[in-house]
Amino acid sequence: MTFIQALLLGIIQGLTEFIPVSSTAHLLIGQKTLGIESSELVFAFLIIVQLGTVLSLIIYFWADLLKVAKAFLGSFKDLRNFEKLSLDARLGWYIILATIPAALIGYFVRELVEALFLSPLLSASIRLFSAATLMASAEWLGKRTRKLNDMNWLDSFIIGFFQVLAIFPGASRSGSTISGGMLRGFDRAASARFAFLMSVPIMLGVGIYESFGAFHLVGFDKFLPALIVGFVSAAIVGWVAVKWLLAYLNKNSLYSFAIYCAAMGTIILSIYLLG
Predict the structure, then answer these.
(1) How many helices and strands (H and E) does the chain possess?
(2) Stated pTM of the model
(3) What is the helix, strand, coil percentage profile of the chain, to 5?
(4) Which CA distances in Å does 72 have to 27, 47, 68, 198?
(5) Nearest to 19 by CA among 232, 233, 260
(6) What's phi and psi for 186, nearest 5 deg?
(7) What letters, b where the CB count within 10 A reaches 16 and e where it falls short, cover 228-253?
(8) N or C: at which end does the chain have fewer Cβ atoms within 10 angstroms?
């Protein structure tokens, strides 16, 4: 992989990880367009470069994450009165609970997911159609009357299961989890904020885990400079994407993203069928 290829894939990752249009599907299209053959090293790149977008998320939500962490650590002595804890303390517990489904299921289906990345087009198209349907359903069925302060254990656990969809090629993590929040009655702003906060632990964990595994791959030392380029570009562009999406969702719906995902799914399916 050349520096230019890594730069372009990093930009694609940064733009599409948080904008609900499926970063994986766009990375796969970018990989095919740039003539990059699938391999264990490329799979590791696509996973590890997510650490760049995690960094952008941590930087953007630094104040929020710090408040949640402090409140969470100070909440153990008052757990018997959980409902009286501050919102930040409760969010800490909800984020942990929401992380469990994706962490457990992701661990046991890792080999299946890696296999899908080696032959991804059909899977990606199906997931894009699913993402389009999910976001349109969230807009149509979601009441959007609840705020984060109204969240409970069941809400966080159910939204956590929507994050499981992001494990597979073509599914949008932000689209799935934001839709999950909206289907639980939360407004777009609350759904997006919780979706981003809850994604930090799982994305960070997966990125670190894959990083350790990649160290042992043959040729990783020569691959590292390109990986750094992709990481940095993903981090910079990711920060911009988060800022833009949060502002966009204050005034707009997910319908435009649903239409886009349906169109991309159609394009990818056509590419697959035409060989």
Answers:
(1) 13, 0
(2) 0.86
(3) 80, 0, 15
(4) 36, 29, 6, 14
(5) 260
(6) -80, 150
(7) ebbbbbbbbbbbebbeebbebbeeeb
(8) C
Expressed as residue numbers, the domain containing 45 is 3-274
Helix ranges restricted to H, 35-146: 40-48, 50-60, 62-73, 87-108, 110-118, 121-141
Contact 83, 263 (CB under 8 A): no
pLDDT in tens, 162-220: 888 777 655 678 899 999 999 999 999 999 999 999 999 988 887 887 777 777 776 77
Structural domains counted in the chain: 1
Locus of tokens 């649903």: 258
**Cα dihedral sign, 155-159-160-164:** positive
- 13: tokens are 């990752």
Number of neighbouring beta carbons within 10 Å of residue 188? 22
Q: Which two tokens stand for residue 19?
A: 């904008």
Is the distance from CB of 233 to CB of 52 less than 8 angstroms?
yes
Strand, helix or coil for residue 119: coil
pLDDT at residue 253 above 70? yes
On average, the pLDDT of the chain sits at 86
Task: Extract the tokens encoding 46.
Answer: 């696509």
| Sign of the four-CA dihedral 189, 194, 197, 200 | negative
Read off the pLDDT of residues 133-170 as tens digits, 9 standing for 90 and up: 999 999 999 989 999 999 999 999 999 988 887 776 55
pLDDT mean over 14-31: 84
